[in-house]
UniProtKB/TrEMBL annotation:
The modification 4-aspartylphosphate is found at D61. It holds the Pfam family HATPase_c. It comes from Pelagicoccus mobilis. This is histidine kinase. Its EC number is 2.7.13.3. Residues 165-389 form the Histidine kinase domain. It is an enzyme of class 2 (transferase). Keywords: Kinase, Phosphoprotein, Transferase. The lineage of its organism: Bacteria, Pseudomonadati, Verrucomicrobiota, Opitutia, Puniceicoccales.
Length: 419
């Protein structure tokens, strides 16, 4: 937060049954605030309820026809607890003050008559309190979100590196076994062994073909695992049209999607081109669509949309949303979605590494991917890729972010101490 506050960023609701006073106060405050006035609690509640997120401060009289000021503040507190509530009344009775604190949880109690400049100062302090509180909440959410992303990235990188290291040792052993199996028919012929004279030749033929198929499948899996943690082997210098990339990927995956009767809703749009490795971006969307074709609901729907979007740090990029209509995942499973060998469908014949590989490809291009439940009923992938990854410094925004946190904390402490 800086020393300057935008007092018109949010609105002030001023409520008093004295119409002339209300109009004069509203007119006086217009130079400083975006003021909305009301002459009774009922009309004030209607105006507030119509757009509750636009209001920061509520100033209300206590004694009015119909609902009292504390009744209005209680309803506002239940709907938007962060809105700053001020009670202003000519009746300085202890009952109204106690009710205002206990029921309406007010920020300040002002006794009338009050000079308009003094009222303006009270509202300014209330607005500052709201803005600091809001900035603090936003920073806290941003900090928790950044921490969660950092923890997930660190965990997945560790898992990827571990998988790649394990891959090396497993591949050596399996290559020896596959070589032995490949040489088995030749060796049997050299030993003059006729399979047809064995007591159960079908068993040995089936055993041999199954072993070959299983070894090939595991070696293919290890090949994919080996490529997961590797950064791009070429500079991110290609100018890529993501609409064209998605269209091409859909065409390549068309057969698999058609076999499961998955209907795709995608309309290409004109977007700024991103700088990236074309080979790796093609592979990224092949992996994502392959995961969808394997895990989306049969006879279901999948929707893909593209748009321009800036990151939290203001870096321009392209946002890709991929969502389907089921089966959905609970919160715990969503956290595991990018883990290696986790499968949405639970089918044992799936590797469960498509999304892990996609995560690393996006990470290598300085982008981000998040998974959540879709409004369609299934899973939604929210992908963001920068237009120019080279423009993003390694320690993007860390110092500025920490400075904002410290300034917000200092301002918050001052407000709590009444300075």
């Amino acid at each position: 937060m800086t020393g300057q506050y935008d007092y018109k960023q949010f609105r002030v609701l001023f409520v008093d049954d004295e119409e002339q006073t209300t109009d004069l106060v509203g007119e006086y405050l217009l130079d400083t605030f975006d003021v909305v006035t009301a002459y009774d609690a009922e009309s004030a509640w209607e105006k507030f309820e119509a757009d509750p997120d636009s209001f920061a401060v509520i100033v209300t009289d206590q004694r009015m026809p119909g609902d009292q000021g504390t009744d209005l503040l209680e309803k506002i507190r239940n709907l938007r607890p962060r809105t700053i509530r001020v009670l202003c009344t000519a009746y300085a009775d202890i009952d109204a003050a106690i009710a205002a604190v206990n029921v309406g949880a007010i920020y300040k109690y002002i006794t009338k008559p009050v000079e308009t400049p003094e009222l303006e100062m009270h509202i300014m302090r209330a607005m500052e309190f709201f803005l600091i509180q809001r900035e603090r909440d936003l920073l806290m959410r941003e900090k928790l979100s950044a921490l969660q992303r950092l923890m997930m990235t660190d965990r997945l990188i560790s898992l990827g590196i571990f998988a790649a290291g394990l891959n090396h040792h497993m591949r050596n052993g399996l290559t020896a076994v596959k070589t032995f199996l490949d040489l088995t028919p030749i060796k049997l012929q050299s030993e003059n062994v006729d399979l047809e004279h064995l007591r159960n030749p079908n068993y040995w033929n089936h055993f041999y073909s199954t072993a070959q198929e299983s070894i090939t499948k595991v070696l293919d899996l290890l090949k994919e695992v080996q490529e997961i943690p590797e950064p791009p082997c070429v500079p991110d210098g290609d100018d890529i049209d993501l609409s064209a990339v998605v269209s091409d990927a859909l065409e390549r995956e068309q057969g698999a999607l058609a076999r499961r009767s998955i209907e795709v809703d995608f309309t290409p749009v004109e977007l700024p081109k991103i700088s990236a490795s074309r080979v790796m971006v093609d592979r990224l969307f092949d992996l994502l669509l392959r995961d969808e074709s394997e895990n989306a609901k049969e006879n279901g729907k999948m929707k893909i949309s593209l748009s321009t979007a800036a990151s939290e740090a203001g870096i321009e990029g392209v946002r890709v949303l991929i969502e389907d209509d089921g089966p959905g995942l609970n919160k715990d499973n969503l956290q595991c979605l990018f883990d290696p060998f986790f499968t949405r469908s639970g089918k044992p014949d799936q590797y469960g590494i498509n999304l892990l590989a996609a995560f690393f490809l996006i990470h290598h291009h300085s982008g981000s991917i998040e998974a959540d439940r879709s409004e369609m009923g299934g899973v939604r992938f929210d992908i963001w890729l920068p237009l120019d990854p080279s423009a993003i410094p390694a320690s993007l925004g860390e110092e500025a972010f920490l400075q904002r946190v410290m300034e917000a904390e200092r301002a918050w402490e001052k407000k709590l101490l009444g300075e």
